[in-house]
Structures are given as C-alpha cells and as structure tokens.
Amino acid sequence: MLAGKRILLIVGGGIAAYKVLELIRRLREAGAGVTPVMTRAAAEFVTPLSVTALAGEPVRSDLFDLGNEAEMGHIQLSRVADLVVVAPATADLMAKMANGHADDLASTLLLATDTPVLIAPAMNVRMWEHPATSRNLATLAGDGVAIVGPNSGDMACGEFGPGRMAEPAEILSAIAARLGGGALAGRHVLVTSGPTHEPIDPVRYIANRSSGAQGTAIAAALRDLGARVTFVTGPASVAPPAGVDVVRVETAREMAAAAEAALPADAAIFAAAVADWRVANAAGSKMKKDGSGNAPALDFAENPDILARIARMEAGRPPLVIGFAAETDDVVAHAKAKLARKGCDWILANDVSPGTGIMGGTENAVILVTKTGAEEWPRMSKDAVARKLAERVAEVLA
User: Fold this and answer.
1) Domain identity same for 206 and 299
2) 288 alpha-carbon distance from chain centroid
3) How confident is the model over 39-51, as pLDDT tens digits?
4) 49 and 23 share a domain?
5) Largest distance between two CA atoms of the chain
C-alpha cells in the first residue's frame, strides 16, 4: 500500500525507540523506502546497526558528516521524502520543533523540510500532561503536523497514563492515511462520542459516567485508515483526536442537529452515551432551597433518538449505521432488540456493570450484533476495539 513511497524516519531518544525496529520492518513490507535518522539519545536505546540492517540504508546522525554532506546535504535529505515521521517524538524533540530550534541533524531536518510531518509522541505521563507540552502540541497541530497517539497504559517508569507511543501498526495506518493510501481514503464517517449534559438550571445538569474514550479511539482509528471523520462530541473528559473535524455540543438536541448537519456520510457510528431524558422545566436561574424541605419538581421529556432517526431516514441514510448498547444485564438480548427497534445495521454491545470497570475505564469487552448473529470479541484496550471496528467498517465500504 506504500509501494514507491519514501519515508524519512527520525528516531528520538526514549525507551519507545525499540518499537521503531518493528515499524521499519512493516514499512519495508508495505513497499516503502526508509531513510533513518537517529538522535544521539536514540542510540542509547537501539543500535544504529539494528536500524541500518532493517532499513537497508545507513543511519544518519551527524549534522557535520562531510561524507554524507557531499553525497546529499541535510537540506536536500529533508525534501526528497514523501513524509517525515518522528518516532518516538520525545518532549525535547517536540519542544525543538514547536520553537524552531536546530542544533542537531534531526531538528535541522525538521526545520528545513517542506514535506508533511507525522509525529508519534512518547514520554512520561507527567511530561505529557505538562502545560509546556500541551502548548507545544497545539503549536505543532496548528502548523499542520499530524499526530498519532499517544496511548494510555503502563510505562517503563512504573507510572500509568497517557504517554505510551502508538503501536507500529497504528503508526503504519497513520502513515498510509497521510499519504492517501488508507483503506478508508475518500470516505466520510460520522462519529458521536461522550455524554450529553441536560440542564436542570444554569449550574446543575443530568449526565452519565461516559468519558468519551471509546468514541475518541474510534475516530482516531478511522482517521488512521484515511477516512475524513466528523467527530460530534459532548463534554467528554477525553480530548478529541487530532486530524478530525470536531463539533462540540452539550445537549442531546444539539448532538442530533450536529449529526444530521454532518450528513451525507458513508458510515455513522453512534458511540455517544446520550441522555434519554431532559428536564422540560429547566430553570433559567439557579434554583434555591426555600427551607420547606421539599425538592423542586422536575418534569422530564424524552430526548430525540439520534440513532433511530438517522437509521430510519428515507433519504440520505448512511450505507452503514452502527450503534452502541451499554447494558448491565441480558446484554445480547437487549442488543438484538435494540438493533431491530432502531433500524441500524450493527450494534456493539457491552456490559457496563460496576464490577466490569468498563464505564470510564481503559478497556472494553464488546459483542458485535448484526442481523445474522452475535460475535463476541475478547476484552482488550479501547484503542484495540476501535482499530478492529475500523477495519470491519473498511471491509464493508471497500
């Protein structure tokens, strides 16, 4: 899928550098040529010999290497590739990129290039969450740099959280998508995610425990396969992925309007945990206790059924409509009933009982329910669920 493409691979200095060996192997298998560049710190984690052997080209690391400069100067080296990939993109490398520093070969190449750039960040969770890294990330995204990952999980330092470099398969998909070779290139997919907040008054609202993590992962996986993704998200605790069209909403009615406005689409995936009801008599100012001991009476009204509304459209219905069913008992039975009731094509059902740790957690265990049966997937990370679902969508839309 990448036959004839040339990748300039810049390897940063971090423990995740070991994954680059697998990435190089996969790139070569896909038909791409790889020109490797390593920082001095990267050589502390993987050997230049290993990288050279897999890439089939010598590693470049010295800005003032007269032999390499005579053959191909660093300015030219930065411009002959179809894509520049930085993996792992350490906090230091990201800071240099964002602020235009050029004190070694890697940073000089990045400053001199007019080629598209994709980074795979990797660092300690505290470094990833530091305001300086957030500012640098925003600057890079604004400069048009594509970003894949990072993922959440256990780290070599013993901590847990976001900061793990994306897996080689994810990076490969992102590269293919960036170069227009993804399985969903040219396709438009609508994804809804997160909870909705239904106001009681300007201060209080009704919500649920959804973090938006699964919907975010799905949008990222579709993007990595080359799809144009419209991501309609409620007030989730997980940030939306880079490289998608983000539409932020608060209420179910806002989400319904945004979803319909995003059509037409080749597929629509409704991963949002939409509140079933809203407060019909929401107050315009903060409700006060009156000393009587009586709670104010709240009148509830049903929210629009976004999944059913779009699945049953007579004109403009996406060819593939997928819903989610978060259940606490009789998961498959409820999912089958929902599939028939809503008129969608697939339902991804999961057990969100408190003991599962799925609602708001990092893992999921889903059952894919279609009109022909139910397929149970093993428990895996939400990122892995998203990739598997994106691949299934690609198979249908191919």
Assistant:
1) yes
2) 42
3) 999 999 999 999 9
4) yes
5) 87
Q: How buried is 69 (Cβ within 10 angstroms: 0-12 exposed, 13-18 middle, 19+ buried)?
A: middle
- 296-335 pLDDT tens trace: 889 999 999 999 999 999 999 999 999 998 877 888 899 9
Task: For residue 264, say if its preceding peptide bond is cis, omega within 30 degrees of 0.
Answer: yes
Q: How far apart are CA 389 and CA 345, in angstroms?
A: 13
Answer whether 303's CB lies under 8 Å from 324's CB: no
Distance from CA of residue 398 to its chain's centroid? 22
pLDDT at residue 346 is higher than 50? yes
What DSSP line would sit under 117-173, residue for residue? EEEEE---HHHHHSHHHHHHHHHHHHTT-EE--PEEEE-TTS-EEEEEPPPHHHHHH
Which candidate in 156, 157, 333, 340 is catalytic? Answer: 157
Per the listing, tokens 């040339």 go with 6
CATH code assigned at 208? 3.40.50.10300
Domain limits for position 147: 6-178
Whether residue 214 sits in one domain with residue 235? yes
Assess if residue 1 is contained within a domain: no
Distance CA 162, CA 237 (A): 13
Residue 157 bears catalytic tag: yes
Q: Which two three-digit tokens encode residue 32?
A: 């791409």
CA distance 302 to 306: 12
User: What are the tens digits of pLDDT across the range 7-48?
Assistant: 999 999 989 999 999 999 999 988 889 999 999 999 999 999
How many CB atoms neighbour CB 254 within 10 A? 16
Residue burial 330-339, b: 16+ Cβ < 10 Å; e: rest? ebbebbbebb
DSSP 157-216: TS-EEEEEPPPHHHHHHHHHHHTT-STTTT-EEEEEESB--EESSSS-EE--S--SHHHH
Q: 28 and 1 in contact (C-beta within 8 Å)?
A: no
In this predicted structure, what is the pLDDT of residue 73? 59
Same domain, yes or no, for 33 and 132? Answer: yes
